[in-house]
Amino acid sequence: MTTSSTGFDKWDLEEPISSAIRERGWTEPTEIQVESVPHARKGRDIVGQARTGSGKTAAFGIPILEKCKVSGKIQAIILCPTRELAVQVSEELSILQGKKGLAIQTVYGGTDLEKQAKKLNEGTDIVVGTPGRVIDMSKRGHLNLETVSLFCLDEADRMLDMGFFPDVLWIFEKTVNRSQTLLFSATFPEEVLDAAEEFLRDPVHVMSEDLVVEVPEIDQYAVRVGRANKLWALGRIIGNAGDDSQILIFSNTKRMVDLIVERLGKFRFNSVGLHGDMPQNKREKILNSFRDGSEKIVVATDVAARGLDVDGITHVINYDLPDDTEVYVHRIGRTGRMGRRGESWSFVSGKEVQSIDRICSTWGLTIPFVEPPSLPAGVERDFVPRRDDWEEVSDAFGMVCVRMSLGGSEKTRREIVDWIVSEARIPEIAIGETYMDSESLIVEIHVEKVAYVIDVIKGRKMDGVSLNPEIVNA
Fold this sequence. Notes:
By secondary structure, the chain is of the alpha/beta class. 34% of the residues lie in helices and 18% in strands.
């Protein structure tokens, strides 16, 4: 093994961890590891900034693994924004600890709570989880946060935004015997650093210089579409792509990969899925088929698409938007290679408009919202039928604007809203903002109630006046 002033051997790590690192073939730590591991081993709080793929997990994982003992009591908790990331981090830590024998348990939603609880109760040294399920397990008595001494946030920029912040703060405040806090992320906006002050004590700020991500020069588009019509939009794009195209479709979960492949097959689009549950030899066979052009459409998760270098990819489609802004850049970089033309399409539901805004602001991009391509010349019927989907006309808060014609009624805005609530028998919380002029009233109605409200109001009159409700496109 190479000997240097920064080599892993100079740190004199615990033997199981040192052996595991050697088995992986690592000799030199990455920049973020060099900058953060020595400080973290001394017990300092860390704010570490480095891009995805730079060794962030090992940067916080090595000190955590060293400090934890095989005791069956939870000593460290690592919070992640998604179950996929939690699984990745847990797997990485399991490899890095070698034969040390620490019990590392993942805790996340969308899976059997009782099975996770049973494993926790059998004894756990390190928990890697998502905030919601960690809180649930704590409240049920399966996870004792008072024994935690090490608190870590991975992708801290997302964990400290307004969506996760209350849950993260709840967990943090329950770790009353905490002695060290580690925050790692690819980006640290100023407002996130401000929020982080709540968690840190005299932290060391370390930053990898390798933070520049090259954004490929390809045509990028976003399509505002609800879940029910993503396949319709996908059919339009594939139908216009041409026989010489190769299309890579990204989904965030293995289950959705399988569903997309199955649904495309029903509409006579041949595709193949690629995800982590497949044997390695099968994945290699699929990748080779994609490289030689015999497979035209591949649907994949990000994990499975690692190392997928195919020069002929013409289209990248984000069927699901990625959770990480940097992942978006890596995805779209799969196309437009070797001077070829490339384009990317992202499907954006009402709740995801903020995610596109975040991607644009992080990387200085302009991603226009457009309609899906028109049907090709000579094609009269859609490849995939379009369905009614209220999500497509709702805003980021799930509200749909409905215009009511007043027909000269002299009722006040409050009286009209009260009449709608009474006639449709809906909770008043389903009604949002209202805007009134002399001829009409625009009222926001929650997406889960709007179809029912419209049907009710169409069939009734208010003091002899028909309100004629109609959708106002968001």
